[in-house]
Amino acid sequence: QVQLVESGGGLVQAGGSLRLSCAASGVTFSRYVMGWFRQAPGKEREFVAALMWSGGRTNYADSVKGRFTISRDNAKNTVYLQMNSLKPQDTAVYYCAADPRWTTDVTSYDYWGQGTQVTVSS
């Protein structure tokens, strides 16, 4: 059974940093793409970053390029999202997701975590 568990959210001031973690189990990770998405109140869920577990290929939304970094720890089966220079518009619930396909389409991802709240104060 696939399980994704996010952690690391919280309240931070604008300009600050947070690191989100996604602990994954129940999948053959070398065959999966791991994605981070976010959903702000009243808005649709949107793509943030993706990582191909095998090979390390990455992709980022334009809004977070240069500020966010997605990475993995193979030994811990964990994916991270390092978020720097945070802005109030980054406030959202952040979700970890997994899918066999290299895609940014939120509707394509098969497996999802429960989400973790990130709030950035101005």
Q: What does this entry look like structurally?
A:
With 122 residues, this protein is mainly beta. It contains no helices and eleven strands. It has strands at 3-7, 10-13, 18-25, 33-39, 46-52, 58-60, 68-73, 78-83, 92-99, 111-112, 116-121. The strands form two sheets. Strands 2, 4, 5, 6, 9, 10 and 11 form a seven-stranded mixed beta sheet that branches. Strand 4 (33-39) and strand 5 form a beta hairpin. The model has no long low-confidence stretch (mean pLDDT 94).
- The shape, in one word, is globular
Which spans have pLDDT < 50 for at least 5 consecutive residues?
A: none
**Strand portion:** over 45%
Average of per-residue pLDDT values: 94
Secondary-structure class: mainly beta
SSE arrangement:
Elements: E1 3-7, E2 10-13, E3 18-25, E4 33-39, E5 46-52, E6 58-60, E7 68-73, E8 78-83, E9 92-99, E10 111-112, E11 116-121
Parallel strand pairs: 2-11
Antiparallel strand pairs: 1-3, 3-8, 4-5, 4-9, 5-6, 7-8, 9-10, 9-11
List the defining traits of the structure above:
122 residues; mainly beta; seven-stranded mixed sheet; four-stranded antiparallel sheet; globular
Quick summary of this structure?
The chain has no helices and eleven strands.
